[in-house]
Amino acid sequence: GIPRVITIFSAPNYCDVYNNKAACLKFDNNVLNIKQFIDSPHPYYLPNFMDVFQWSLPFVAEKVTDMLANVLDFDDSDLGPEESADGKEVPAPEPTVIAKRGGLLKKKVLAVTKLLRMYRVLREHNEAIVQLKQLTPSHK
């Protein structure tokens, strides 16, 4: 019938790092075949074997915050007078309402800009820490 396969491993992705072993047992027609695996060069690995999500999160957060800052930072003078659905011009809101909305929008833009700077500094510090860890003998 169908060959039975049993995989035996001890973290095969780290065969080269920790001298772990990996093997595959295959039973077929009362014959036992053992296939052992040796380490192969990694195509690319991040510093300290960091996972991609953890590594890319600061970059993604910085770009999302940057896009949010660009969305919030627009100029109303480019839009011109507003028109309603029936083609009539909508009256402009009172100056006090505009000032309040403008102040609120300015606060939001400043908060997003501050957040963007914070993400950038955190990412730069994280990269510096990773580089310093690579210079130590234990890489910790």
Automatic annotation (TrEMBL):
One of its GO terms (biological process) is calcineurin-mediated signaling. Gene3D superfamilies: 3.60.21.10. Transmembrane segments: none annotated. GO terms for molecular function: calmodulin-dependent protein phosphatase activity. Signal peptide: none annotated. It comes from the Eukaryota. PANTHER family: SERINE/THREONINE-PROTEIN PHOSPHATASE 2B CATALYTIC SUBUNIT 1-RELATED. This is Uncharacterized protein.
